[in-house]
Amino acid sequence: MKPNPFVIMAEQFDGSGLVFDPETNAAVSINKTGVFLWNLLKDGRSEQEMAAAILERYDGVTPEKADADVKVFLDGLRERSLISDEG
Description:
By secondary structure, the chain is α+β, with helices and mostly antiparallel strands. The protein has one domain. Helices cover 45% and strands 21% of the residues. The protein has a three-stranded antiparallel beta sheet. β3 (17-21) and β4 form a beta hairpin. α2 (47-57) packs across α3 (63-79). It starts with a strand and ends with a strand. 20% of the residues are buried. The model has no long low-confidence stretch (mean pLDDT 94).
């Protein structure tokens, strides 16, 4: 899984971000956790590694919640073709 090569993620002053594909005009706003996950995705981390990183970073998150949140995040990006499962 990797970001679409044309996609740009612009981090905002408050730590949130915007993921944008200039070829399709697809865009999604992401919160601070989304920016954290996007950077892990760019580094080549797997879905399981991303969930583990959430558990490490945030107190009080259960493994089930981390898995579910990462899945929702990635599914939203896939729906907009902002990431690819190829490669």
